[in-house]
């Protein structure tokens, strides 16, 4: 079923011009884009939602930057072994740091899907709470994913300084970058990116009956789509450092453009090509690993 037809059947109010907004909403599947989501509500509501997401992200960024500066001398990635000291962090502290980091990086990228969800819940007179639950479900997925970098961090803590000069470590780092690059060309990457770029179709096909529970589930499912879109590039942090601010900033720009630009898949493949080249360079010239992990 085409996204627009599904929208009309499940939520007719979304295509009723007089009751929706003074602007036109998406009319065809090609128009089901992140930009079209801003036509579902008034500019005032759009502004409030965007400001809230940006403020939350800014607060999270402030905490993330403070954490990164506090751990500047600690080993947080493969490329830092042998040049920094091995620190210790509890599971609770690491998961809290990771969740805050994900909120900082990802919240600005989900504005269109949040607006699309809010448009549906408002027409059901559901208020703002279901959309807050939707965002909560989204962040729960990224919090759960934090278990993987936590295990990676504990694994790094078991390595001594001599491992930094070993051939296998550079091979592992290079292989991680290559795998991340290859994933950018896969069908799964394309499917997940499509889910992130089609907010109306996603909301309609992941309704779950409405209410707070349904919104929480829908947010979690969207989190899985977002995870499928971004996990490979995120894995690069295990190589360059989990709290590498320069790489984090570059990832935010990449994810934002990928999700909001109609040619986002092209950018994903360009990034994939870059990671492939970088991975090969790390395996051929070990000094490159230290350079990109500063």
Structure in words:
By secondary structure, the chain is mainly alpha-helical. The chain has one domain (3-292). The protein is built from 14 helices and no strands. It has helices at residues 3-10, 17-20, 43-70, 91-106, 111-123, 129-145, 147-156, 167-183, 187-197, 199-205, 211-240, 245-260, 264-284, 287-292. Helix 4 crosses helix 6 (129-145), helix 5 packs across helix 10 (199-205) and helix 8 (167-183) packs across helix 11 (211-240). The protein is globular. It starts with a helix and ends with a helix. Mean pLDDT is 88; it is low at 1-28.
Secondary structure layout:
Elements: H1 3-10, H2 17-20, H3 43-70, H4 91-106, H5 111-123, H6 129-145, H7 147-156, H8 167-183, H9 187-197, H10 199-205, H11 211-240, H12 245-260, H13 264-284, H14 287-292
């Amino acid at each position: 079923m085409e996204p627009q037809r599904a929208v009309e059947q499940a939520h007719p109010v979304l295509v009723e011009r007089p009751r929706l907004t003074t602007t036109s909403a998406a009319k065809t599947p090609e128009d089901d884009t992140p930009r079209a989501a801003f036509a579902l509500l008034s500019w005032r509501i759009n502004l409030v939602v965007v400001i809230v997401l940006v403020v939350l992200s800014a607060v999270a960024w402030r905490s993330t930057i403070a954490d990164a500066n506090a751990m500047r001398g600690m080993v947080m990635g493969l490329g830092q072994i042998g040049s920094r000291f091995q620190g210790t962090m509890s599971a609770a502290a690491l998961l809290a740091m990771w969740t805050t980091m994900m909120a900082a990086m990802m919240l600005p990228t989900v504005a269109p899907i949040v607006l699309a969800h809010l448009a549906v819940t408002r027409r059901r007179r559901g208020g703002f709470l279901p959309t807050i639950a939707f965002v909560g479900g989204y962040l729960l997925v990224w919090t759960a994913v934090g278990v993987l970098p936590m295990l990676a961090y504990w694994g790094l803590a078991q390595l001594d300084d001599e491992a930094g000069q070993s051939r296998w470590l550079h091979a592992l780092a290079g292989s991680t970058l290559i795998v991340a690059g290859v994933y950018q060309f896969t069908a799964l990457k394309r499917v997940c990116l499509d889910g992130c770029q089609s907010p109306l179709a996603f909301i309609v096909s992941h309704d779950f009956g409405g209410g707070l529970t349904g919104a929480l589930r829908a947010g979690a499912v969207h989190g899985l789509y977002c995870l499928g879109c971004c996990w490979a590039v995120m894995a690069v942090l295990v190589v360059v450092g989990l709290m590498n601010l320069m790489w984090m900033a570059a990832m935010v720009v990449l994810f934002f453009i990928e999700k909001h630009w109609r040619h986002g898949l092209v950018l994903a493949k360009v990034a994939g090509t870059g990671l492939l080249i970088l991975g090969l360079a790390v395996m051929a010239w070990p000094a490159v690993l230290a350079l990109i992990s500063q």
